[in-house]
Amino acid sequence: MLSLVTDNFEVLTADVDERAAEVRMEEEGVPALKVSEHLAEIKAKAVYDSLSDEEKENSIVIGADTSVILDNIIFGKPADREEAVNMLSLLSGHTHVVATGVAVFEGGKKKTFTEETRVEFNALDDYQRKLIEDYIDTGSPFDKAGGYGIQDMGALLVKGIDGDYANVVGFPVSRLARELSNMVK
Questions:
Q1: Whole-prediction pTM value?
Q2: Which residues of 104-124 are buried (b: 16+ CB within 10 A; e: fewer)?
Q3: Which of 55, 82, 90, 125 is most buried as measured by Cβ atoms within 10 A of its Cβ?
């Protein structure tokens, strides 16, 4: 998705214990809607700090993290079938928030933001239950926050969205492009 903004990028991973960071934030009372932004900042800073001074001068480091939130509860990636069924069933018939936190480090400057998109799932009727079971059979839910991807068969679970579709896919490219244009002149 970043290639929509630039084709000159490299993907680097941060050595960050996200789960420990989430637990610490929960203990500190960080609101669920801000957790992904803090995680994005932790990841981007870890990569930024690993760069040489020259690389820091000539690079823009972008970190991102996406959370699915219902009733102030963050739905992570389901660990097994039972958790996936439970998660997708709980989301059904409700509107949840997909919050993607983004952190940008550039030339000693830092910018963070959270993009929020509201997603409404279809009611939990017999058809939705069958869709959930069939979707879990694909294996797709296990590597996705909230247990679904709107860009694959998970779209069948969704009644509608209010906000940025790309954000639900996992990265708010339109907002990032605007923020970068304001940072880099």
A1: 0.90
A2: bbbeeeebbbbbbbebbbbeb
A3: 90
Among 13, 31, 14, residue whose Cα is nearest residue 22: 31
Our answer to whether residue 15 is catalytic in this structure is: no
Give me the domains of the chain, ranges plus CATH numbers. Answer: 2-183 (3.90.950.10)
CB 121 within 8 A of CB 161: no
Q: Out of 49, 53, 65, 134, which one is annotated catalytic? A: 65
Asked if 75 contacts 91 with a C-beta cutoff of 8 angstroms, the reply is yes
Mean pLDDT, consecutive 10-residue segments, the chain of 185 residues?
A: 79 84 88 93 94 90 94 94 98 98 91 97 98 97 95 97 95 93 77
Listing from the earlier edge strand, what are the strands of the sheet with 60-70? 73-75, 60-70, 95-106, 109-121, 158-162
